[in-house]
Structure formats: structure tokens, C-alpha cells
Amino acid sequence: MSPKRGSLTAVGIGIRAPAQATFEASSAIARADRVFTIVADSVAEYWIRSLNPNTEPLTRLYALDKPRSETYREMVERIVESVRAGLVVCAVSYGHPGVFAYPLHESIRILRGEGFSAEMLAGVSADACLFADLGIDPASAGCRSYDATDFLVHRRTGDAASGLILWQIGSIAEPGVRNSDAAWNLEGLRVLVERLLETYRPEHEAIVYEAARFPLCNSIVVRTPLGALADAPVSVLSTLYVPPMTKPRADAAMARRLGIL
Amino acid sequence: MERPRLTEFLLRLATDMETQAKFRHSKSEAVQMMEEAGLNCDQQEAVLSGETRRVQEAVILETGDLLPAMYCGKVRQHLFEFEVIDDAE
After folding, report:
1. Angle CA A17–A124–A90, to nearest 5
2. Chain A from 11 to 50: CB within 8 A of any B CB
3. Cα within 13 Å of Cα(A56), Cβ side
4. Which of A79, A138, A259, B45 has its CA 20 to 30 A from that of A120?
5. Which structural domain, as residue segments, surrounds residue B10?
6. Which residues of A are catalytic?
7. What is the model's pLDDT at position A254?
8. Is B20–A210 a contact, with Cβ atoms under 8 angstroms apart?
9. Which ranges of chain A would DSSP assign to H, the alpha helix?
10. Which residues contact A75 (CB under 8 A, 6 or more apart)?
11. pLDDT tens figures, A91-150
12. Which phi-psi region, left, alpha or beta, contains residue A65 (left: φ > 0; alpha: ψ -120 to 50)?
């Protein structure tokens, strides 16, 4: 059975858009009947509109005192309804369209279930920028990655021998949105420090990171002892990177079994 | 509506490496380019600062858009649908 006529392509345009947008993302935007955007700055929005004037910003659905879950439901509805109406739709997010992007994953899931063509194209995410800016190769010591709220609520265990990325440290347990760049939940940040100190020494250096979003701007890189993280300039855009504190211990039996010892 | 000169200038910087190289070459050249593009003093200072926040504020002033902080936390609906662990068990 051939797919129905409407289709969805979810694309990301990177953190420093449009410089980090891929050719395939630009092309998907340009050839769509309708473009929906979830992007964080007007430069990106302006660029997308220059590629395709049939653009509708879904960020207009956010509102103070409105739960994010409701906003996301409305985003999914807008995207899915347009595809059902037979349109070639491109949904654009900043960063990577599949990283912290529930409405795009959900729209694809629903549409595929209904027999429509729906795909996602990879983009440059905040962790990709972090690896480049901080000179980290996740292959060298491993790197675990969690949303900060997830890390706390699901009792993720620490591993001092691998790197750790914690996303959204400025909006721990925040179900809505606020009109401020500063950390939305300082108490949550203190709780996070408490949990991290079960694994790391308080003087262990961590990095509060925020990727540059405009050309010629610098990424924000603040080094702080973990014990003092709650006093560091954390914003709602900050990501935390905790480098390994110890070296991993090799399992000699496994190394022998694999033939490398 | 007035043209968003700062937005257009940033877009040019982002997409044209030659323009970017010229801008980086010297401060006087950078200032001249910004003046030719019609940027006001505050906008020029913001771009020269190299600080994302300052540039962002200048862009918001120009376009009147919502603060990006309204939606910059990105989306994570699933995190609030917990399978609860009960310590007492």
C-alpha cells in the first residue's frame, strides 16, 4: 500500500542557526507546503520564513501559567491535522529535532500509525556543541546523559569514572514556562548538588555550559567546584558537564575473554 | 514595518563566511560594515561584545518577540509521567 499524500519531515536547524542547519534540512523547509517552527530566536525564524513564507511559529502556543503538556498537545494537533489535510509539512525545531522534542516524536508516531510518510532528519544538538567547545571525546571515558529532573526522580546512580551530561539544570521539576532567563528552580539545583555529592567530591570541577546561538558569539563556559554549583550563574539554557573524577578499573576476566589481555 | 536590520545582518554573518572573515579582520572594518547595514550604536555594541545574551536582547528589542526563555527549556513531556517508586515497599 502506498503512503497517503500528506507527509511530515521533522528537521533541526542547530543551536547556532542557520549556520548549523544541514542542506537536507534547508531543502525540506523550502519544499514544504507548510512549515511549523519551534525555534528560540528571531534570526532563525526570519531565515526560515525567507526560505518558505508559509511558516507558522508553534512557539505562540506557549503561555505563562499554561502547562507545557497542554502546549505540546496543541503542537501535535496542528502538525498532524495539516498532514491529514494532505499537505507536505516540515516541522522545524532548534537543535536536533529528536532531542528533547516530544511533539515531533509524537507527531511522527501518530502519522506513521495512520499510514502517512513521516521522517526525522538529524540536526546539531547542544551536546554536539558541548563536545566541540570543551574538547571532549565521549569515547574516551564514556558519557552518560540525563535530563536533570530525570536524574533525580529516577535515582540514577553515579559513575565517577565516566563523564556526565545533565540537561535542563535550570528548570528542574518545572512543568510550565516562566518569563525569565535565570534558573527557574534554585532549590531544585541545590537538591541536584546534594545528589551529585554522593558520587563526587565537592571540589571536583564541573562545567556550566551554554552553546553560542549567534555568529561570532562565544559559548558560555563556567567552571565551578560541584559543591558551589548552586551559586554559579546557571540559566534556564544551561547544561552541566561533570568530567570523570576517577579512572575506570578494567575487568581483567572480561578483557581476557575478549582476547585483549 | 521597518526592516529588521540587526536580524538581517546576523543572518548575513551566519550564512556568508566571507562577510564573517571581513568582520573578524579588524574592529574598524566591523564597525563600518555595521554602519553600512544601518545598525544603531546599541546594536553594534551588542554584536561586538560577542555575548549571546546581549545579542539576544538586542534582537528581541528589534523584533518585539517573546523572550526566548518562554520556550527555551525545550520539551520533555515524558518526564512528568512517572512510574512512582515507593520507599516504604
Report:
1. 70
2. 16-19, 38, 40-43, 45-47, 50
3. 13
4. A138
5. 5-70
6. 68, 72, 94
7. 94
8. no
9. 23-31, 42-51, 68-84, 102-113, 126-134, 138-141, 148-153, 186-196, 252-257
10. A36, A38, A58, A61, A103, A107
11. 999 999 999 888 999 999 999 999 999 999 999 999 999 999 999 999 999 999 999 999
12. left
Q: What interface predicted TM-score (ipTM) does this complex get?
A: 0.76
Residue B78 covered by a domain: no
Q: Residue B79 domain-assigned?
A: no
* Residue percentage of chain A with pLDDT more than 90: 74
CB proximity B31 to A under 8 Å:
no
The reported pTM is: 0.87
Domain ranges of chain A: 7-120, 126-242
Question: Is the pLDDT score of A56 beyond 60?
Answer: yes
Position B66 scores a pLDDT of 53
Domain boundaries A7-120, CATH class? alpha beta
A215·B72 Cβ contact <8 A: no
Grid coordinates given for A57: 511559529
Question: How far A225 CA sits from the closest chain B CA (Å)?
Answer: 24
| Count of pairs with CB atoms under 8 A, one residue in A, one in B | 132
Amino acid B70 reads M
CATH hierarchy code of domain A126-242 = 3.30.950.10
Give CA–CA dist A122/A117, Å, rounded.
17
Cross-chain residue pair A102–B67, CB shorter than 8 Å: no
